[in-house]
Amino acid sequence: MRSIILTFLILLLFFSFGCTQKTGDSTDYRKGTQGIVMSFMADMPPAKMYDNMPIDLVVEIKNKGAYPQPTGITGLAIYLSGFDDTLIMGMPKQMSIPNLEGKNPYNPEGGYDVVSFRGNIINFDSRNIDSYNANFLVTSCYNYETIASQIVCVDPEPYSTKEKTKVCTIPPSYSLSGGQGAPVAVTKIEETVLSNKIQFKIYIKNLGDGKVVDKSRLNIDCPYSLDYTNLNKVYVSGRVSGYSLSCKPANPINLINGEGSAICTVPKPAMSKSAYTTPLQVKLEYGYSSSIQKSVEILNTP
Amino acid sequence: MKPNKIIKIILPVTIILVLFMPGCIQNPFVKPTTQDDFRTGSQGILMEFLANAPPGETYEEYPFQIGVLLQNTGAYDIKNGFISFTIEEDYMELMNQNDGVARFSLKGKSVALPTGDQLVKIIKAKTKKISEQSEKHDSTILASVCYQYQTKKDITVCIDTDIHNLKKMQKVCTIKDITLTPQGAPVAITKIESDMLPAEDDNLIKPAFKIHIKNVGNGEVIDKSKISDVCSSEPLEHRELNIVDIKVMLSNEKLECKPEPLKLKSNEDEVRCILEKGVPKDRATYTSPLTIELDYGYTYSLSKKVTIKK
User: CATH code for B37-148+300-309?
Assistant: First the structure.
């Protein structure tokens, strides 16, 4: 009898885990610091190969960010370099990836695609070569956007000495942690009420593992001609209370060591209005580039 | 123990062993053998006298044998090598005068012949009468080999098209000096220094390599076209010593090397090779195979003392 009870209890304990309520909001897809994520498929290609045979390089591409909504990303291109193309012939150097949608309520995992680069390793005897360490660098270049939303307090008279019941007060800063489903994120917003306008200082940071590229130069310079003139440029815009943000410095904003800021203003509401909360929406537009690398040792067939 | 019980124990153990055994078998792709694996060591031909051929002591007017074992311990096949025997003609003579110089071929180490080929050369000789006043005479027998050999090394080098790091693209490799161990030949490539030089055309860079070469064997480097002269006692001029022909390819492009041929000074020297055609700067940094071939003649001698008694 005792053993039956014990078995029953153990089973109950095991199955009770399945009843735990799932925490976290599955619709919060504007979280995270990733955009387009690439990875080599296992053993495609293997670490060691022989000459005189075809070689397949298969790359999985996932859109782990929240852009674009609802259509697929446009202008995503994958570039292949780093190897001697007289030894590995016929491999395409560039591929365009169409329609890779971002995470959304209907596709919380984001878009997924697989691209295959196929080439042929020449006969090494014809070149008198025993072995060759080929390096494959796959680089992505794409346009991306960050949408950051923050409920802010709009108080036309924050320094007023009149006794008033206010629904909100302006904090020293609004902190936005964990990213907004994109590699470049708004990390902090500071609000200041001036005489005739409200000022928001928006802090921006590259939290991804790639490079921020000027979106206007993406199709021209990425990835082979990136330098200080076309890197770290972000275009900032936004809206609050029906007003478009007017930002300085003029777009694009320059990121220094991956960080930058913009000071944006909107007209101050009439003094008669009391404090209220409203969403501030900041949009960052930029190009982005990241790379993955794999080495393959190719041996002359004995 | 009952037989049934033994079966009950052995059977599961066997099944477990069979299941886990494949994990212990080495994957043949983990360490495949290639010709490059045999390009180790600092010798070409190894030569040694056979035991008692020639004997340490013998008597006057007495026949004896001179035998040598030749082994190609390098990774290059020798065709038309020469072996010569030199004796003191006042005290010894070869039974067959044509045996003084002989040709040989010996295959080097390869996947099919991992130890390299070897051969034994035996010739017959006879001592002559020694002087009336002497009880004994010490005479020296010299065996020499002369052969053409090749040192080959291919190594993956970095072609950095952005030497000043102006482009902010990830690089698959960086330029570095490469130190090498001998390549299964008496002349070795000891170091390769890489450099990317600016070209007259601003859109190009010129890959350049300084290749350090050293005689690491125990013989002498000679002009490869003069090997028969050395082993036939023909006079050899100073300019025919220490000559190494060099061929360097970067992928499928031949590099221009200076000086060519190289004359080793104090058994070592360096050569500078450059790809004059250049590489476009707008190309991403990449790796490419650098293939170096050194062709030369080599000679090595061995002596043994024979005491001729009355």
Answer: 2.60.40.10
